[in-house]
Amino acid sequence: MDLSNICRQAVLLTEQTARFLRQELGNVSTSQIEEKALNSLVSYVDKTAEVQLVEGLQAITPGCSFLTEEDSVENTEGELRWIVDPLDGTTNFLFQLPVFSISLGLELEGELVLGIVYEVNQSEAFYAWKDGGAYLNGRSIRVSQRPSLPESLLATGFPYYDYDQTQAYLKALEHFMQHTRGIRRFGSAAVDLAYVACGRFDGFFEYSLQPYDVAGGALIVQEAGGIVTDFQGGGNWLHGGEMLASNALIATDFLNVVRTAFKS
Predict the structure, then answer these.
(1) d(C-alpha 261, C-alpha 257), whole Å
(2) pLDDT, position 70
(3) How confident is the model at residue 14, as a pLDDT?
(4) Which amino acid positions bind Mg(2+), per UniProt (predicted)?
(5) Quick one: pLDDT at residue 233?
């Protein structure tokens, strides 16, 4: 399987869908917004973008299956499966905050082998394929080399559910507020991961995640030399709802803070 060629075609597809997202920015009326939950919104834009992506990916990889956020196609498991978030950062989009992205991950027999995050407003295509390295608009990227948490800039996202763990999250957040350069909350986990991969952020942590939030960005971080784990240091981050991603130099200390907070 030629992953580099599949990646090239899929990046072009995300660029086409990004044009649609830009076109619709600011055009969605309140009556066209659906509330999946109080802090989880969706509109025709998400759904139309997902249909565009699914149809394009079916042409690139015939016979593939899908796991999608908006359920425009039946979610099934297969040897080759795309994990699709057509608009990561929907609330940002609807409020015209310019941080949102398209996220695609490709699994081969359950293993992520390709990831794409397209940051729409900056026209930045982050992508990687297994053992092929990580790239931003054709340029090779690597995670940062900042060696310690006190020198690091971190990213996070606030939980959308599972509020029983809020105090543990706040405990970790309080530590990082006092012992790092700072913390940013952009509202798109896919963008956060892409920024870890290229060294803009040194680390990212979040819980209450879905597979389509992180499938694109996680492989990019790994191929850029970074470390991705769950909150216990294990590998259950795609379906386990929690993730840490960072450069290798701060990974152990980063994990220890989060693991301790969530064990207490």
Answers:
(1) 6
(2) 84
(3) 99
(4) 69, 85, 87-88, 213
(5) 98
Task: Say whether pLDDT at 43 is over 90.
Answer: no
Q: What is the CA radius of gyration of the chain?
A: 17
Percent residues over pLDDT 90 in the chain: 88
Is 143:248 a contact under the CB 8 Å cutoff?
yes
In sequence order, the β-bridge partners of residue 205 are 156, 244
The answer on whether 85 is annotated among ligand-binding residues is: yes
Fold of 3-140: Fructose-1,6-Bisphosphatase; Chain A, domain 1 (3.30.540)
38 is in an annotated binding site: no
Contact 36, 94 (CB under 8 A): no
> What tokens were used for 62?
């015939």
Distance CA 122, CA 18 (A): 10
**What pLDDT, on the 0 to 100 scale, is given for residue 264?**
62
> Residue 49, exposed/middle/buried by CB under 10 A (0-12, 13-18, 19+)?
buried
Can you spell out the DSSP letters for 68-104? ESS-SS-----SEEEEEEEEETHHHHHTT-S--EEEE
What are 5's two structure tokens? 């060629």
Question: CATH number of the domain at 149-262, please?
Answer: 3.40.190.80
Residue 187 is given by DSSP the state: S
The partner residues of 134 in beta bridges, in order of sequence, read: 128
Q: Is 253 known as a binding-site position?
A: no
Is 87 assigned a ligand-binding role in the annotation?
yes
d(CA 40, CA 236): 24
Residue 40 above 80 pLDDT?
no
Measured at the alpha carbon of residue 4, what is the angle toward residues 71 and 115, in degrees to the nearest 5? 40
Domains of the chain, residue spans: 3-140, 149-262
| Residue 23 reports pLDDT greater than 90 | yes
